[in-house]
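RNA polymerase sigma factor: structure, please.
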Amino acid sequence: MQRTVDAVWRIESARLIAGLARMVHDIGVAEDLAQDALVAAMEQWPESGVPENPGAWLMAVGKRRAIDQFRRQERLERKVGQLGRDLEFQQPNVEDELVDAIDDDIGDDLLRLIFTACHPVLSVEARVALTLRLLGGLSTDEIARAFLVPETTVAQRIVRAKRTLAARKVEFELPRGEDRTARMGSVLEVIYLIFNEGYAATAGKDWVRPALCEDALRLGRILAGLAPADAEVHGLVALLEIQASRLRARVGAAGEPVLLLDQNRALWDRLLIRRGLAALERAESLAAAQTDTSSSEASGQVPCGGRGPYTLQAAIAACHARAVVPEATDWVRIAALYAALMQVAPSPVVELNRAVALGMAFGPEVGLQAVDELAAEQTLQSYHLLPSVRGDLLVKLGRKEEARAEFERAASLTRNERERTLLLDRAAACHPGLHDHQHLADDGKFNG
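Here you go.
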């Protein structure tokens, strides 16, 4: 029964909290009410059985708990008028009106919850933790284990996030116009960060954490359903679908990292690739319909076609997905797409990825020159992929001793144990007389 309750909670918790938050206008209170409903389910379902509509059952209990709370606060008369006086006497198994209650405006409720959990007044870490808790249905312990931080740290982030939202009087509402566009960027960033941590773990013993990727992909798909006309939402989903298609191939039998050019492409999930390419087509179509690119084309710049950073990254991932063998990869197009990405989302990490593409398209000398131009970039001084990429290019140029030093430096900078082992192995392979191995710095984290 515990597993059943857990499964129901994962499916229904976001909608439950969203619906309750719309009524009580406080995310912290809404989550407490939802947790009360969960406790009631664990107490009653073993005896009564799981109801036909468990979401409606949980919503009914949550609403009754809200009414009880308002009564204790001596505000029953005003609040019951808002919630509907008839709900006070309904039982969980009386579902006719309750089904309507949980479904009414549920799309808007979920969007409100997403925008509130990802509000810019919160730190990035708090947004990630709160989103996984409220929308992903993860426990504090699960979030802590996923990000390799103490459970108390996650708990404090969540508590502080709720207090900040309450203190700043953040409304549980759908932002409009420019505010919505700005806030959507924060939402997409949170989902992207969750996926990235699963796709290329920052620290710990595991190279990938598929469960985090699955959580991010599920959130992205939900958001795409709630915001069907937003090009960048579909661009993000396209990126995640295509990247997720490679998860099985990114890890060897012993859990070791397998980089892009060495992966068995037969292991790539073709269904996820098809889904990703379809989402990319939709994103590009929406972007083209919303933006006139004639001015950028006339200026001689690389035309973005109105595409945002996630759609451009998805287009890059699609170049890899369409290549049946590594040699078929269109590196010239990838380099051009990175140049376009630099226009809309400039960053040293994007420039580093562009340098990799230039090296593959036009030779390691060109790539090394581009990398060396980034050597003084302060934000890359502790970024392990800078020396890793440089080492790769030096190997291809036959400068093994220099490459060995770069791989050793990269190994000293990474906090992921699997990646450190890989880099040290590559350093050892640079000793004279050992067989050369050509690798490409994997495209795990586009924007760091």
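Notes: The two ends are 41 Å apart (CA to CA).
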